[in-house]
Amino acid sequence: MEESGILPENSRILRVCENGSALSVMSVDHYENFPVASLLLPPALRAPVAAIYHFARAADDIADEGDASPQERLDGLEAFVVGLDEIEVGKTPEHPVLHALSSVIVQHGLPIQLFRDLLDAFTQDVRQQRYANYPELLLYCRHSANPVGRLVLLLAGVPTPQELKQSDAICTALQLINFWQDVAIDWQKGRLYLPETDLRTFGVTEAEIAAGTLTAAWKDLMAFEIARSRALMESGAPLVRALTGRLGWEIRLTVQGGLRILEKIEAVEYDVFHRRPTLRLPDWFRMFWRACKM
Fold first, then answer.
1. Is 31 domain-assigned?
2. What is the domain range of residue 68?
């Protein structure tokens, strides 16, 4: 099992920030942007967050795993859309994952649209492998990452518009950080999340990415993307001061984990082709110390 890149191994029952396994022995090898339902979360939140995770994980499997054709993947995702339609009109879907999710949605009054947004992102992964520019990539993140942070905040209480905005910044930054960390892995799947306009601006070609060529242009491009992602994460970081108790600590460590991965990408001189940055035990001590000062 590969070591986690962003979140600590012993903090995951549910996560979409990095690879690894969870306390519940759930594998999370490929869904990348969830906050975690961990021992740090308030106990009342763990079951509903786990239900949300199972929904996202099952849908992600349909979009990304196995050897199904694109149309078969889209048909599978459409079945989940139908399940959400049933929940919206007061029916309980038969699918076990949707069945469990329906009670969480009803009990906590969660907006169905946030779950539709997640399905839109999975559908987009089937249909789209390149992104023309940064705004287009941010739109993808709005569907793939931001709904999860919003759902966690809604489970915890009634977030303010400012808190939702900060949550979006953190979740989008985490998604972007994972893209920069996993350029080589995504390339093997036929995907490239670096905006085409940025590739042209810095003079980086897809052939160089395919070959894992570490050019000066590549380093300049990655330095630019990392600076932009760091600024976005830091703009959302004040959210932690509005969150008390375990949830506040969960988000503090999540923010610090993302920022630490950026530092480690810089430390390997942007060579994510051959040395994928991950977090190790000394990093956790550093992250905890920084979290204490947030």
1. yes
2. 9-292
Q: What's the pTM?
A: 0.84
- Assigned domain for 4 exists: no
Looking at the chain, the number of H-run helices and the number of E-run strands are 13, 0
Interatomic CA distance for residues 166 and 207, integer angstroms = 37
Identify the CATH number of the domain in which residue 153 sits: 1.10.600.10
Helix crossing, 112-127 with 134-144: angle to 10°? 130
> Is residue 87, in this structure, part of any structural domain at all?
yes
The 3-state DSSP class for residue 229 equals helix
Per-residue pLDDT of the chain (294 residues; tens, 9 = 90+): 233 333 333 332 233 333 322 222 222 333 443 444 455 677 888 889 889 989 999 999 999 888 899 999 999 999 999 999 999 999 999 999 999 999 999 999 999 999 999 999 999 999 999 999 999 999 999 999 999 999 999 998 889 999 999 999 999 999 999 999 999 999 998 999 999 999 999 999 999 999 999 999 999 999 999 999 999 999 999 999 888 788 888 888 889 999 999 999 999 999 999 988 888 888 888 888 888 887
